[in-house]
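Please annotate this fold before class:
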Amino acid sequence: MKLVNRSALSVKPTQAFVDWINLLEPTEEGDDLTLSDVDQESTVYLIPEMDTEEALHTYVRERYLDILENELSAWEEDYRMWPDALDWELFERFLLVEFSYLSVDLDDDTPLESSVIEEDDLLLDNEED
């Protein structure tokens, strides 16, 4: 086990987020995604080490738009289909954030790797025609 020099955010969808996803592609009655279906798609974001809840909240407040855009693009690449106002209120309605001060790597065999994700990689085909 190795302690990683990062704190973490686990981001989970709310029912409001699921409702938005279901509006994207109408389905037959009863075929809509449920919160339980989408909850399996939660994302963990590694962030700089934080030692207080206030620091964590401040960081999220500074980076909420990056997180929100990433979560929306995971379900709909065309930003024109996104909600109109990408603001803090939407972030709070669509996503639940859980904090973790420590990150531990349990894989003793495989070294950690990382790659840079460019904004264009996250938001594919979002150019206006």
